[in-house]
Amino acid sequence: MATQEEFWDRKKKLNDDFFVMGSVANPATEKQISEYEESTGFTFSEDMKDFLTTFGSLVFEVKEEVWKRPEEFDVLPSWKFGYGFFVYGLSQDEEMPSWMGFEEKHNEALEYNEYPLGQMFFKRSGNLYRAYTDNGVIKIEYDKYDDQDYEVFDGNLYDFLIQEIDNLEEDYLEYISEGKS
C-alpha cells in the first residue's frame, strides 16, 4: 500500500506543464472529519483521514496553454476531455470553493442515486468517471445512471491517486505527441 510520501513524490515528478493546487495550507481537522462522518454515516479509512488532514482537497491539471480545453459541443475522443482531475475533501480554508467540498459532492450524488456508492471524492475532468469511498473501499463509477456500472479498486487512496497521476500523464503525453504530428 502506497503512503502519503510516495504519492507526493510521484506528484513532484510531473513536469512544469502540470498545475496542482488545493487546500494544503488549511486542510481539514480531525474534528471536522468526525463531525462529517457522524452527519453522513460514512466512515473514512485512515489513509483518507490522513489525506484530508494533510491536503484537504486537490486539483491536478495540465495547464490550459498546453492542453486546450474542449469547447461546448466539441466532438472528440472521450480521453481528450480528461485534462485533469479533482480530489474533493474537507478544509478549514474559507477560500476553498464549495464545489470542491464533500458536502456539495454528496448532494450531487444524491441527485441521481438515492443510495450513492459512498462519499464522492474524485472526478476526472470531462466527467469521464468518479470515485467514492466508504469504510476504506474505493468504488469507481463509469456511468452515474447505472447502479451496476462500478468496480472496486484494489488498493488504498494513495495507490489510487498515484494511478490517476500515471493515467493523466499518459494521456498528456499522447495529447502533446498528437500536436507534434
From TrEMBL:
Protein name: Knr4/Smi1-like domain-containing protein
Coiled coil: none
SUPFAM superfamilies, A to Z: SMI1/KNR4-like (SSF160631)
Positions of the Knr4/Smi1-like domain: 27-163
